[in-house]
Every structure is written in structure tokens, then in C-alpha cells.
Design goal:
With about 180 residues, the chain is mainly alpha-helical. Helix content is about 70%, strand content about 0%.
Length: about 180
């Protein structure tokens, strides 16, 4: 039988084996660090978006809901991380009796900050207005979990849940019945 003997590896061959792996790792580190240094911190919202938020708030206070909606949607387009703009847009939707849209907007705010008690309360109220009392109770449980002591948001949402969804009155259109000849 032939005996296998290990051939000594030269220094150059060892360097060539590891240099490609080292080069790939170095390129990965450079790419990741470059992409992270160009991003804003999560807490920093674009100043233009904050300015538009203030403008939308003043329009809503003045009663111009169409203008407020337009400006607030622009604010969210400028910086989609502006949670306060989503919350104010949801309040505008509630003012217009659009609970479904308000629920969606509160959900957007909760995606940015799942522990936002104001968004949970607002979404719970909109859910009750839409008739989804069970889901509103889930929000109440989350709020009570987040608030260790007395929490006005939990008290307000509990009162809305206790009141229940609004009763929609159906209006029947009376059509004259044709007399038989």
C-alpha cells in the first residue's frame, strides 16, 4: 500500500487561501458601516414633516378638515415615521365619522410604536364605533398592562366600551303601493 504523506503548505499558499475570505469580510464591514452612517436615528423626524404636522394641527383646530387631511398626508409622505401625524390623521377621520379609516391610521401609528397608549385608546374607541367591541377590549387589556397605576386612557376606553357601539337607525324609504285596478 502506498503511504500518503502530508506535504507542507507554504506561507504564500496559506495567505492566498485566507486572503479572499478576509477581503470579503472587510467589504461586508465597509458596506454595512457606510449604509448605517447615512441614516437618521429613529427618534429624529424630518423637520419638514414636523412643520407640516403643526400646520395640519392648526387647520384642524380651525375646522378645516379637508386642508388638515391634505397637509397631514403630506407630512406622512415626507417622513413615514411621523407617528404624531398618523394619530392626528386618525382623529380627523373620527371627526368625519370614518371609524374604519381611523382604525387603519391608528394601526400605522402602532406599527411604529406598539406601546403607544394614546394610539391604543384611539383605536379602541374607533373599534367600538365600528362595532368591534371584543377587539376594543383587547386594546383595553394592553393599555392596562402598559399602565401600572391609574391610567386615564384605560378609564376613558372602558367607559366607551361600556356605552357600546352607536345604534344605527335604519331609515325605511316608503314607496307608495300601487292600487290594483
Amino acid at each position: 500500500m502506498a503511504q500518503l504523506t502530508a506535504k507542507p503548505v507554504s506561507r504564500l499558499e496559506t495567505m492566498m487561501r485566507f486572503s479572499s475570505v478576509a477581503l470579503a469580510a472587510a467589504l461586508t464591514v465597509v458596506c454595512v458601516s457606510t449604509s448605517l452612517s447615512g441614516q437618521r436615528p429613529d427618534a429624529q423626524i424630518d423637520a419638514r414633516s414636523m412643520q407640516l404636522l403643526a400646520q395640519g394641527r392648526s387647520l384642524m383646530t380651525a375646522g378645516n378638515l379637508d386642508g388638515a387631511t391634505d397637509v397631514l398626508e403630506t407630512s406622512v409622505a415626507v417622513d413615514p415615521r411621523n407617528r404624531a401625524a398618523f394619530l392626528l390623521l386618525a382623529r380627523v377621520a373620527e371627526t368625519r365619522d370614518l371609524p374604519g379609516k381611523a382604525i387603519r391610521l391608528y394601526r400605522e401609528a402602532l406599527l411604529l410604536e406598539p406601546n403607544d397608549v394614546a394610539a391604543l385608546k384611539g383605536q379602541g374607541e374607533a373599534l367600538v364605533a365600528k362595532g368591534a367591541v371584543v377587539r376594543a377590549k383587547d386594546n383595553l387589556v394592553k393599555i392596562r398592562t402598559l399602565c401600572k397605576g391609574v391610567c386615564p386612557e384605560a378609564t376613558q376606553l372602558a367607559a366607551v366600551i361600556a356605552k357600546g357601539p352607536p345604534i344605527a337607525t335604519a331609515q325605511v324609504e316608503k314607496t307608495p303601493i300601487a292600487a290594483k285596478d
